[in-house]
Write a structure and sequence with these properties.
The protein has 548 residues and is α+β, with helices and mostly antiparallel strands. The protein has two domains: 207 residues, FAD/NAD(P)-binding domain, CATH 3.50.50.60; 275 residues, FAD/NAD(P)-binding domain (3-Layer(bba) Sandwich). It contains 20 helices and 25 strands. The strands form six sheets. Strands 6-5-17-18-19-16-20 form a seven-stranded mixed sheet, with helices on both faces. Helix 3 runs parallel beside helix 11 and helix 11 runs antiparallel to helix 12.
Length: 548
């Protein structure tokens, strides 16, 4: 009897069954493979790594080692929307518990006090990829990129996607991506408590010595054991270096080479502080141009967390403090953080993998710190099971991680190269000397053909493969270039009245949104809205989770 080729039958021939089988039957271990992991260092990097390993590779024995009484840098931290999916889908953290204990605030994007002299500002919202109102129309009609998306209008009015209509509230949170503003100590405390529930072992010990050894068939050195100040030894199959800028395992013990980004990113210090917001938190991060760098404003529930990021070659610590005090007279709790911009030549050497500042750091602009930790964590988890066969995976990850960090370097460099807000020695040097070699080809295309995100599809995909940063992509780069009014050749646009109509629609939506302080109260009355954000099958969180 002849087969009836119905759609269910044909679907059998248009499905990659072997791939589905392989993904569903990944081996959990290999002979002579890694069974125990020691994480050196706590903080967000260490505890996120521990949680990911126990959640995704539950048969592993995971131990986190950190020095006793090591202080946590108590600053607010801004993030990107992918972290919401990472926390609540990948790590399976309950959104209501997280909100109650960590008390995050929402971030719809970044308001840049940047680009042009005077009181000029522009918005970089998270729905830039939609371009729902229109880049070209915004630049033609308002000479400012801010009005090109619905979320850009919400940011401009300081409102949220919780609307009030005829006395009734309606949440649009599942369709407009947001990120978290986080208080670092509260976040770390929550992660540590959750890790304990998953039986992550926590050792309070100061590691003072690392014993290394060679392994037959592997050119890389390996860490054999850690020695603590009291003479005890800690021996594990594999180690994750979360020791921060000191890079105790990757650089100091195994000799990874540090590659500086200083020719592109001139800043090397940050003065963190707090100031009151008088009950008016904004639903976005603000980046304010300063004499020798810039200042972040991260609104938390009780106050704004700030940080003046500056170049010590252009400004002394005392002068930086005086400048921020002049701008924020109520500033208090100042803390100085020194950093270097760059990455190591490898993230994975032998049986050591570095996460966070132990591998690299760019600078705080664009809130990429936790994003890159998230990327590193998921990269390592995907490498399991790890064993003698893993050298090819090690080489692949070293290349791909290095490429991701280099792309981030060039993306951030564009923020400094074209910022004409102030005419100070620092900013004159930035405009003249910041190295943007890695995106020079993309900049030439932008100048000749207009916004990169509006190029023909095939060309757009090729350019994205070359320079696109995870999450930000070409839309993020376009927003920064247009926001700073970097010129490009004229580009044909649609009839003006269409753009005007969409702008009016977006402005009306934003005008009905609740201010953030009122939105917080509404969420407390409707916690199911937060559950809906992370569980809605077609919402933005679920879609982002597919790419983690």
């Amino acid at each position: 009897m002849a087969t009836a080729f119905t759609m269910p039958v044909l679907r059998e021939l248009f499905t990659n069954h072997e791939l589905l089988h392989r993904e569903a039957h990944q081996p959990t271990s290999v002979p002579d493979g890694v069974r125990s992991v020691g994480i050196l260092g706590g903080g967000t990097a260490g505890w996120l790594m521990a949680l990911a390993l126990k959640t995704r590779v539950p048969w592993l024995e995971v131990t986190l080692i950190e020095a006793p009484d090591l202080p946590i840098i108590g600053v607010g931290e801004a993030t990107v929307p992918s972290l919401v999916a990472f926390l609540h889908h990948y790590l399976e953290l309950d959104v209501l518990d997280f909100t109650r204990e960590v008390r995050p605030t929402w971030k719809q994007g970044i308001r840049f006090e940047w680009g042009q002299p005077g009181d000029y500002v522009f918005q970089a919202p998270f729905d830039w990829e939609v371009n729902g109102v229109g880049l070209l129309g915004a630049m033609a009609e308002e000479q400012n990129v801010s009005a090109f998306t619905l979320q850009g209008h919400l940011m401009a009015q300081g409102t949220t996607p919780i609307l009030e209509t005829n006395g009734e509230l309606q949440s649009f949170l599942p369709i407009l991506a947001f990120a978290y503003h986080l208080d670092n100590p509260s976040l770390v405390a929550f992660l540590e408590k959750t890790a304990a529930e998953l039986e992550v072992r926590h050792l309070r010990a100061e590691v003072v010595e690392v014993e290394t050894a060679s392994v037959e068939g592997d050119d890389d050195p390996h860490v054999k054991r850690l020695v603590t100040r009291d003479g005890a030894t800690i021996e594990r199959d594999f180690y994750v270096d979360c020791s921060g800028f000191g890079s105790f395992l990757l650089e100091k013990a195994l000799g990874a080479r540090f590659e500086s980004y200083a020719s592109s990113l001139f800043t090397d210090r940050a003065l963190a502080f707090q100031a009151p917001h008088h009950g008016r938190p904004m639903p976005y991060t603000t980046a304010t141009t300063m004499d020798a760098g810039w200042c972040w404003t991260i609104p938390m529930r009780d106050s704004d967390h700030h940080g003046y990021v500056y170049a010590s070659a252009h400004l002394s610590d005392d002068a930086a403090l005086a400048e921020l005090k002049k701008r924020w007279p109520e500033a208090e709790g100042e803390r100085l953080v020194r950093f270097r911009s760059g990455r190591h030549d490898r993230a994975w050497i032998g049986n050591v993998f570095a996460v966070g500042n132990a591998y690299g750091f760019v600078e705080p602009l664009e809130s990429t710190g936790l994003m890159m930790i998230q990327r590193a964590v998921t990269d390592l988890v995907r490498a399991f099971p790890i064993g003698p066969h893993s050298q090819a995976m090690r080489g692949f990850l070293n290349r791909s991680i290095g490429r991701d960090w280099d792309r981030l370097r060039w993306f951030l460099a564009a923020h400094f190269k074209f910022n004409a807000k102030l005419d100070t020695p620092f900013w004159r040097d930035c405009r003249a000397e910041v190295d943007v070699a890695g995106i020079e080809g993309a900049l030439e295309l932008y100048r000749a053909l207009g916004p990169l995100s509006l190029l023909p599809r095939a060309m757009r995909n090729s350019v994205k493969d070359e320079v696109g940063v995870f999450f930000y992509g070409l839309h993020g780069l376009d927003t920064i270039l247009l926001g700073q009014r970097v010129p490009h050749a004229p580009v044909a646009r649609e009839p003006r009245e269409r753009w005007i109509a969409r702008r009016a629609l977006a402005a009306e939506f934003a005008s009905r949104g609740l201010p953030y302080a009122e939105a917080l109260e509404a969420i407390e009355a409707h916690p199911e809205w937060l559950v809906q954000v992370v569980s809605h099958p077609s919402g933005w969180v679920a879609k982002m989770a597919e790419f983690i």
